[in-house]
UniProtKB/TrEMBL annotation, chain A:
Source taxon at top rank: Eukaryota
Entry GO terms, CC: early endosome membrane; plasma membrane; SNARE complex
The entry's keywords: Protein transport, Transport
CDD domains linked: BAR_SNX4, PX_SNX4
Protein name (record): SNX4 protein
Naturally occurring in which organism (per UniProt): Corythaeola cristata (Great blue turaco)
Domain PX as annotated: residue spans: 12-139
Family assignment from sequence similarity: Belongs to the sorting nexin family.
UniProtKB/TrEMBL annotation, chain B:
A molecular function (GO) term: phosphatidylinositol binding
InterPro entries attached to this UniProt entry: AH/BAR_dom_sf, BAR_dom, PX_dom, PX_dom_sf, SNX30_BAR
Name of this protein: Sorting nexin-30
Keyword terms of this UniProt record: Protein transport, Transport
GO annotations of cellular component type: early endosome; phagophore assembly site
Annotated gene: Snx30
Family: Belongs to the sorting nexin family.
Biological processes per GO annotation: autophagy of mitochondrion; endocytic recycling; piecemeal microautophagy of the nucleus; protein transport; reticulophagy
SMART domains to which the protein is assigned, alphabetical: PX (SM00312)
Residue span(s) of domain PX: 86-207
One of the Pfam families matching this protein, by short name: BAR
Taxonomic source organism: Corythaeola cristata (Great blue turaco)
Ranges annotated as biased composition (Pro residues): 1-10
Taxonomic lineage: Eukaryota, Metazoa, Chordata, Craniata, Vertebrata
Length: 408, 434
């Protein structure tokens, strides 16, 4: 990790700004732009303050970057972007993309994304990524010039073909690891989604419990007005009830960060799945190529020996309408032999590609696993710390209230 | 004219005069020098007079030496009997279910320990059911109409909604019945009431009840208090203030009751979600290898918080809400006593007016008008004294109640805190190289 970009360069997404502009169909739209600031790290150690470079990017440009990275490095578990639309919201949170809280959490999420890419041993060296951070104008053109969209299309076509052919990975041999991984990523997505949904409901209910206590504040105040000795105690206790009711807002806002950490790994599961899918498609491609080669070899053999072993339309028609001339047959055999040679070379390179892919993919998957275990542990610890803080606040407030009651 | 002191139903061979009881007297003329009222405490002569009765003719219970009289109340220097001077202790416990052919019901053991002479024995233990408490309360209301009688827990429960025989319900009721008797025990007048004595001591209460009913029917009186039909022009300021206070007080209590119920409801809904939340961590733990233990730990932790929350809600339902409701009932019965007082005053004022209109010889005020005046003044005095006592008890009761509520919440958070703190080391644990 010595040469990873994150060590050389300080990257922050420091601001978010509302903009209006014209979109592709010349309609006016409002969007948020994010300020990316970068600063070289090395010169700082010399006591100099390096200049900060900055440029503005909007969410769609981040998406473009990520799509490029996914297509260009299919064997890498590419870090995910923060969610496009607010999901798993509990009632107080807004689902509006323009909501300042949402924008703020997205800003943090985008910064996190850039830092993840910058600290990845492979991705950080990508030139397009570097220009994303440093080159304001003309970046889109550069990305498009890489022709990565073609790769995306190829993948999609392959996928559709595989689907129509009802290809199942039962055909794969020695790919148990990937099957298991795919299964794991599916389960992970499912369990984290469930967790986030229930957490949102839990937050909603907790909000209700705290807020109703605010009513005590009001009624204690009203009651204290008709009391002589009890009045002061009631009044001050009521104040603490108000404090209690208000405290939930900060508590739940902090918890949103935990939810965001979970969401990152929800989307990471998707990225993991993408790698598995790529592997599946490569295997499919390989098998198709192998099958094609086998059938060509068979055809060649039949032509050479004159025996028909497999059913083919050509074979039938030639039987029905008479055999070919020896010259025609020779020509066919030659074409086939050329194709077979090509096919064998292709198969060899595909096999090599496949093995390379498995090797590098698995290396990144191991890296990802370690990162995931570390990050999620940290997330759970910070969640526990949040709960502890909430409990301590609760004890404090009720102890204060108890003291007020004791003075009644 | 003062006669010999009337013997009490269960008093021993000693006569009242021989007993060094500070409140022992049946007429002002029999009071010893130590108990002579000071000149500024001018009181009508008819204190403890047998003729003292209510407009509806029901005789006021004067069989106890401390019958309703302001003199006696004022003589008592310390209204609240502290542990030193207390001579009567009553407890309600040990609920038992009885299954008979006709019905199933619960009885409670009522234990009495006393040094009072009004009791033959120093200790009693009897079994009573709710009906018996209800009977007692009615008797007290009848016989001590100028005093505030403590409330009983609600009589009727909607069958099917609340289980009358569940442990929680029975325990809640037991506590309320215990409180009821303790409040009577602490009252300087009510605790000497004859019916109270019988309630605490009689083996067969039903026989006594029937006796009482017979007596009443002999006199041809209805049990219910009949309003004289007199209209009061205006309530004296202090009683008007009490009335207003009680109105606002019961309103506020009603609001607090609703808030508390709402909180419990919200907590239970929160609990439902938590119960789904915890297990998801466990499911996730099943997927993982290194994260398995931490995730299981979090799941277990949330489970512990669920248990703590359940306990909090239960406590609030069983201990907090019933006491609130008791005080609302208390306020209602107190307002009724205020109305009765108004009636007594109204009758007096009406009779006074009638006399004025008749233009009779003024120097001699007719005796029945005098009696009305006595009644009003006694009622006012009793009520004021009881109100003071009630205010003080109320303050202590609510202090205890609200501190209890705060305590329960503190305990809940402490349980959760312990749970979360205990898994921090588990989460931070580095797995050993396998």
């Amino acid at each position: 990790m010595e040469d990873c970009l994150a060590k050389k360069m300080e990257i922050t997404v420091s601001e978010a700004e509302k903009r209006t502009g014209r979109n592709a169909v010349n309609m006016q739209e409002t969007y948020t732009a994010y300020l990316i600031e970068t600063r070289a790290v090395e010169s700082q150690s010399e006591g100099q303050c390096a200049p900060v470079d900055s440029l503005w990017r909007r969410y769609s440009e981040f998406e473009l970057l990520r799509n490029y990275l996914s297509a260009t490095y299919p064997h890498i578990v590419v870090p995910p972007l923060p969610e496009k639309r607010a999901d798993f919201v509990w009632h107080k949170l807004s689902a509006d993309n323009m909501d300042p809280d949402f924008v703020e959490r997205r800003r943090i999420g985008l910064e996190n994304f850039l830092l993840r890419v910058a600290s990845h041993p492979v991705l950080c060296q990508d030139k397009i990524f570097y220009s994303f951070l440093t080159q304001e104008g003309g970046w889109k053109e550069i990305v498009n010039e890489t022709g990565f969209q073609l790769k995306v299309i190829t993948v999609i076509v392959c996928l559709m073909t595989a689907v129509t052919q009802k290809y199942s990975n039962k055909h794969l041999s020695g790919c148990l690891r990937f099957t298991e991984l795919k299964h794991y990523s599916d389960e992970l997505q499912s369990v984290i989604s469930h967790l986030l949904r229930v957490r949102a409901r839990v937050a909603d209910r907790l909000y209700g419990v705290y807020k109703v206590h605010g009513n005590y504040g009001r009624v204690f105040s009203e009651w204290s007005a008709i009391e002589k000795e009890m009045g002061d105690g009631l009044q001050s206790a009521g104040h603490h009830m108000d404090v209690y009711a208000a405290s939930i807002d900060d508590i739940l806002e902090e918890e949103e960060h935990y939810a965001d950490q979970l969401k990152e790994y929800l989307f990471y599961a998707e990225a993991l799945r993408a790698v598995c899918r790529k592997h599946e498609l490569m295997q499919y491609d390989l098998e198709m190529a192998a099958q094609d080669l086998t059938s060509k070899k068979q055809q060649c053999e039949e032509l050479a020996t004159g025996t028909v072993r497999t059913f083919s339309l050509k074979g039938m028609t030639s039987k029905l309408f008479g055999q070919e001339t020896p010259e025609q047959r020779e020509a066919k055999i030659k074409v086939l032999e050329e194709q077979i040679q090509e096919g064998e070379e292709q198969l060899k390179s595909k096999n090599l590609e496949g093995r390379d892919f498995v090797k590098s993919a698995w290396a990144d998957i191991e890296r990802f696993k370690e990162q995931k275990n570390h990050d999620l542990k940290e997330a759970l610890i910070s969640y526990a710390v949040m709960q502890i803080s909430m409990c301590k606040k609760g004890i404090q407030v009720w102890t204060n209230a108890k003291e007020c009651f004791s003075k009644m | 004219a003062a006669g010999a002191p009337k013997p009490l139903p269960s008093s021993g061979p000693k006569s009242l005069r021989e007993m060094p009881h500070p409140l022992a007297t049946s007429s002002s003329e029999e009071m010893g020098p130590a108990l002579t009222p000071s000149p500024d405490l001018l009181l009508p002569r008819s204190i403890a007079d047998k003729d003292l009765s209510l407009p509806n003719g029901t005789p006021v219970d004067t069989s106890s030496p401390a019958s309703s009289s302001s003199l006696l109340n004022r003589l008592q220097l310390d209204d609240d009997l502290d542990g030193e001077t207390r001579d009567l202790f009553v407890t309600v416990d040990d609920p038992k279910k009885h299954v008979c052919t006709m019905e199933t019901y619960i009885t409670y053991r009522v234990t009495t320990k006393t040094t009072r002479a009004e009791f033959d024995l120093p200790e009693y233990s009897v079994r009573r059911r709710y009906q018996d408490f209800d009977w007692l309360r009615n008797k007290l209301e009848e016989s001590q109409p100028t005093h505030l009688i403590p409330p009983l827990p609600e009589k009727f429960v909607v069958k099917g909604v609340v289980d009358r025989f569940s442990e929680e319900f029975v325990e809640t009721r037991r506590k309320a019945l215990d409180k009821f008797l303790k409040r009577i025990t602490d009252h300087p007048v009510l605790s000497f009431n004859e019916h109270f004595n019988v309630f605490l001591t009689a083996k067969d209460l039903n026989a006594y009840k029937k006796q009482g009913m017979a007596l009443l029917s002999k006199m041809g009186e209805s049990v219910k208090y009949v309003t004289g039909g007199y209209k009061l022009r205006s309530r004296p300021l202090e009683f008007a203030a009490i009335g207003e206070y009680l109105d606002t007080f019961s309103l506020k209590l009603g609001t607090i009751d609703r808030i508390a119920q709402r909180i419990i409801k919200e907590q239970l809904e929160y609990l439902v979600e938590l119960r789904e939340y915890g297990p998801v961590y466990s499911t996730w733990g099943g997927l993982e290898v290194e994260l398995s233990e931490p995730l299981e730990g979090v799941s277990a932790c949330i489970g512990n918080c669920c248990t703590a929350l359940e306990e909090l809600s239960e406590d609030m339902t069983e201990d907090f809400l019933p006491v609130l409701r008791e005080y609302i009932l208390y306020s209602e019965s107190m307002k009724n006593v205020l109305k009765k007082r108004d009636q007594v005053q109204a009758e007096y004022e009406a009779k006074l007016e009638a006399v004025a209109l008749k233009k009779e010889d003024r120097p001699k005020v007719p005796t029945d008008v005098e009696k009305c005046q006595d009644r009003v003044e006694c009622f006012n005095a009793d009520l004021k004294a009881d109100m003071e006592r009630w205010q003080n008890n109320k303050r202590q009761d609510f202090r205890q109640l609200l501190m209890g509520m705060a305590d329960k919440n503190i305990q809940y958070y402490e349980k959760c805190l312990t749970a979360w703190e205990s898994i921090i080391p588990l989460l931070q644990d580095k797995p050993e190289a396998k």
